[in-house]
Amino acid sequence: MFHFLEQFGDGFALFNVFRYITFRTGGAVITALFFVFLFGPAIIRTLKVQQGKGQPIREDGPVGHIVAKAGTPTMGGLMILAGAVASTLLWADLGNLYVWIVLLVTIAFGAIGMYDDYLKVKRATHNGFGGRQRLMLEGIIAVIACYGISMVAEGPYTNSLLFPFIKDFSINLGWGFALFGGFVVVAAGNSVNLTDGLDGLAIVPVMIAASCFGLIAYLVGNQTFADYLLVNFVPGTGELAVVCGALIGAGLGFLWFNAPPAQIFMGDTGSLALGGGLGAIAVATKHEIVLAIVGGLFVLETVSVIVQVVSFRLTGKRVFKMAPIHHHFEHLGWTESQIVIRFWIISFVLALIGLSSLKLR
Fold first, then answer.
1. 84-141, pLDDT tens digit by residue?
2. How far, in Å, CA of 56 to CA of 223, rounded?
3. Fewest beta carbons less than 10 Å away: which of 17, 95, 185, 190?
4. What are the structural domain ranges in the chain?
5. What is the pTM of this model?
6. For 131-156, b where at least 16 C-beta lie within 10 A, e where not — what string?
7. pLDDT tens digits along 325-346
């Protein structure tokens, strides 16, 4: 749409709106939302037929899950990916290399997750793709993508790590930037994956994070706003706001079907893709640390798993009744809706803290 209709802007003022990132971001939200609404039911019916018993439920998990969630199909991330990719291709400036890098990371991570989901369904177990092999494959993709970002980027901070709340302070990572960025992307993908354990728990914090980074991408990609806010100007990243808009719209559409009781789970197909995409956007906009703040809920879930594993191996004792931490609260007697809504609130508060870094320096 951008390339086809923008050319008519000089003759017809109406078509000038397609030159504005804000207009195209709004268009991407609505398009992705209706795409998922339109094709979602058919995708769910197809996956139910193909998967039979649906996603295998952890036998060591909360007892209620074995009964309540049995038979629910997985790979719902296909709905999100299809809606987000189609909407991005329709509304974004496809001459922007940042858009292609983020899309390719999102699709590649989604493909890894889909293979993992396929193995789980085929084997009727919650164990899928080998952990080491999966992490290695994700790492290779992420490092290549971050190297591409460093090649596309312009300015003195191309390979530097910038710090929020501190003006004019950075660490030049040199060739190590691709490795650091790759770690951020892989960590983001797997953190969202660990959070996806209850109906609606992961998708809303993902949409909150995408909203924040849509705004961040727009601001750091605009020199006037970047200079005013004293943040690093990264030419071209403003177009990533359109990608974020597509993720938000697709996420809203998916939430319609994932709201309790869920008709479908996003699975690794969705969680890895969404987390990887957000990580790539954070690296491109030079706001990697802000992602850890805005996505603090994902960090908390990941840390709870690490603490649980380390504690059990060293002492034989568990810190939490079950990890990730949302299952700990289930064992404490919180209902699923209480956990989900309270975690949404935490995500919203963390997003406000992260966004405050744009002005507090």
1. 999 999 999 999 999 999 999 999 999 999 999 888 888 766 666 777 889 999 999 9
2. 49
3. 95
4. 2-160+169-287
5. 0.92
6. eeebeebbeebbbbbbbbbbebbeee
7. 999 998 898 999 999 999 999 9
